[in-house]
Amino acid sequence: xxxxxGMLEGRETAARVRAEGLREEVARLAGVLEAAEIExxxxxxxxxxxxxxxxxxxxxxxxxxxxxxxxxxxxxxxxAPVPGSIVPPWREGLLVTVLAPHYQRILGVLDERQxxxxxxxxxxxxxxxxxxxxxxxxxxGVRSKARRLxxxxxxVRETSGMFSAGRRPVALPGADxxx
Length: 179
Hints:
The model has no long low-confidence stretch (mean pLDDT 82). The protein has helices at 2-75, 101-115, 123-129, 136-151, and strands at residues 155-157, 163-165. The longest helix is centred in the first third of the chain and has 74 residues, at 2-75. It has 2 domains: 1-78; 96-165, Arc Repressor Mutant, subunit A (Orthogonal Bundle), CATH 1.10.10. A two-stranded antiparallel ribbon has the order 1-2. It is mostly helical and 179 residues long.
């Protein structure tokens, strides 16, 4: 019987060791679980705060944008929106409204100047007429747009680099010359 009793005591000791190991594992996992729950709470709070801040910012931006739009509509009638900044080649019957607003304004300055009987303008002078100032970035932007308009027949570019109003058909690359 002693050997059976010894066997049972050995099994009991093994079960006790196993139970103690599992208790330690449960305690360790409880700590890990608590840390994970704390991190989860922080993430939820951060997301909620961000959503609140974005909503407040969006409401503020919308109010500012609407106020600016109303002020702009009161001072300058905005032209119809034109998608993109594509400048099609000029042809008879093509309206200026096919151009993006910034191109229309350049044409408007030069058309007005021609109606007044005045000569061509440099890109810097066009920039000033548009009220954009005289920074080199603004001047180069207007020069680039005016060149594009001239290349496509909407303006005339003088040999001196000045621009004047005038429309002329231009040959399209790859277009059939008999058309």
